[in-house]
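User: ok so my PI wants both of these folded by tonight, can you help

Assistant: No problem, let's get them done. Here's the first:
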Amino acid sequence: MTRVYLSLRDRPAASRPAPGASSGAGRRPARPAKVSSVVVTLGVVSMLTDISSESVAAILPLYVTTALGLSTLAYGVLDGLMQGATALVRVLGGWAADRGDHPKWVATTGYGLSALSRAGLLAAGGFAGVTAAVAVDRVGKGIRTAPRDAMIAAASDPRTLGRSFGVHRALDTVGAALGPLLAFVVLWAIPDGYSTVFVVSFGAAVLGLATLVLLVPDLRPRRAAWLARHRSRGERALPKCKGCTCDVTGLQPAGRPFRWSLVVAPRMRRVLLAAGVLALLTVGDGFVYLSLQARDGFAAQWFPLLYVGTNVAYMSLAVPVGRLADRWGRARVFVWGHLALVAAYVCAGLAWASTATTVAALLLLGAFYAATDGVLAAVVGRIASADVRGAAIGTAQTVQAVARMVASAAFGVLWYTAGRGPAILVVAALLAAALPVCWVLVRSLDAAPASEDATAGADA
């Protein structure tokens, strides 16, 4: 189990480096650390929260277009809101986590807002109420995501960062598969049981919030990075925190002053540009599922199972793809993982109905998320300074969220004017053309020396 030590006195004596000892010859290479218990616990929190959120997301396209009687254009606006309402608050959440050096409590605020939004869905009586509840949920998601990912990065061995994010995303996706499955069972038993789904969703959100508050430790990433920098310089007597009177085991924030220039350093700008371009050509999954339903004509109660299929594929592939990213290159896996999305769009845009193409579309969507979701956070977590890691991850996710908001709203219009098949195939062609350009932008990020992983964020 990976442990994070906040001072030398917390570290077991047997594991402390001897004075003047070198890290060089005669030693066997250290074995990669196991995935931290912090990562696993955060995965359980995400699993419970995703049971809550995905049970709602799985019925939302039908709820809006069937129960509320609105068009796909209205759903496009709502889906764009789901993608974009998290945008600015992602940066705020990351900044607050870095500034106060207490990412756990910033994440707790986000998880709490999402739990409240589930209660709001029960009270909502129309499109405006549903839109407000969805907006609150997405704001909560935006606040919590960057601090949570910063905690994962802080608790993990830098050499196996992709695997740690893969384990977290695998647990997260267990919930993302169980949520739609629960929605399917409810709608199977109660054809109009949308309110029952909302009740189940609220209960799961409360359990996830309680797990975070009671079981996840209050990690201090900036303090740990500050101590690591002084240890790497061979200082046996560590200095006091700059700007305060506490000793190194005190509770005051430590680390260098927060600077946005570190967040948008040259290497980060390339990641942000590539992520933004690719997200502009990524439409919401709900559109893919609505396309499959419109083409294949299966009954509405089977609709949530489409989410289950995608999430089972994601869950199965998250850890293997995370390991592949650690070995083959995280930026490479992130960019070329979008090929799976191109293929999924082609399967959904074909004119003829086929069980094989429907199943293939779901599996390809799962592969796309396994190759991009946690991998983007791992790319940023490696190249960003530890002092601004939360804000850097939040900034990358904000760029992605804003671009996907624009993409969903624009695709709703494109579907409405051009039709289902042509709209999806046009997006597939544009995405395929963008991949080589984005690869040119980020390919050098995988060519950094291996030693950089061991000191990621120490001296940006």
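One down. Here's the second:
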Amino acid sequence: MDTETSIFTIISYGGDAKAIAYEALEASYDGDFELAAEKIKEANNKLTEAHNTQTKLIQSEINGEKVDMSLLMVHAQDHLMTSISEISLIENMIKMQQRIFMLESNLKED
């Protein structure tokens, strides 16, 4: 895979991962925590694909191949890192939603 294709792969998978994680968050607002968990797993699979591509670029450079550092490369790295960060935050927001739903459920029972 050439460098430009790798860059666009990182951007694509990173963006897909983030979008899917937001779908998971929306599902949690509706109390559908099973769907939310499935979406988070799907998002993390997309992140793995992006990270694997990033790792291949790093390994290429370690092996002496020239990897051009371009604005597009910087954008891809930034995009991946913000996706990782947002998904981590979303996972914690979903946990909070679960607690809220449990508390609301307990209050209704009383």
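Helices lie at 3-29, 33-62, 71-109. Residues 15 and 26 are 17 Å apart (CA to CA). Good luck tonight!
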